[in-house]
User: Fold this.
Amino acid sequence: MEKITLNNGVKIPQLGLGVFKVADDQTLTDSINAALAAGYRHFDTAKIYHNEDGVGTALANADVKREELFVTSKLWDNVTTYDETKRAFEASLKRLKLDYLDMYLIHWPSAGYNEKWRAMEDLYHDGLIKAIGVSNFEANHLEKLLTTAKVVPVVDQIETHPYFQQTALHALLHDLDIRHEAWGPLGQGKSDVLTNPVLAEIAAAHHKSTAQVILRWHLQRGEIVIPKSIHQKRIEQNIDVFDFKLTAADMLAIAGLNKDQRGSSDPQDEAWLA
Ligand code: NAD
Assistant:
């Protein structure tokens, strides 16, 4: 598994398993076990996914050393202050049954993010989090955060797929030395991207699936990627993307599929963030 070195020197496996909408039951345990067996070491959860507990149990029962694992969770929007941030973090850590978190993200640019970031910086300096970052931050949010931040976020986890390529934000993140992490990398099943004929043709040429071509496109753009599946075959397929390369022509053809078509909530939508 390829690793990416973040701006603070921490290494993150470039591909991980996302567990959004995975119920905290046997499905989650089976998915994590299938992922571990397939070679995944990076897991992406959040307070709001209501499955940190099960992620923690599955990882605690796994025959994998803690230092090999990379676990991310996220601070939910109901938290608005410095103190609440510290308490929410402690609660996540406890549910995950860990004594440190590899990465902790502000989930959305909701009220009080400069103060929440200050608390995360302190947790980072205390060694309780190895790397801190943000999610769903756009240029204006990053600009405001950086007026008070002492630590530059390591990643910005943002919706990204071939129909919503985030071209401008991708370039800005590159300039700021913040890694682009793609959520909804396969389009979340909300569009026909997985049956797109351009992608299908590229997939056939490489003897891969369209999902694998999309994941490979993210990797070749330098993104960190966290596809979700609860099916063993797909979990295996989604990590089997390190043995082929898209050509420059493939990359150009996929760039041409961009429609700036968001599938989920808009971070500029004040009503959503309220
Ligand atoms: P995704 O783009 O990973 O799509 C997942 C869906 O794609 C699956 O439910 C399945 O229907 C399909 N799929 C997966 N593998 C496939 C394959 N090989 N072939 C065919 N179909 C396949 O969507 P997601 O789960 O929303 O995003 C991935 C992860 O990103 C989440 O699980 C979560 O960890 C994270 N996320 C973060 C945010 C945020 O606000 N930060 C928001 C959404 C998701």
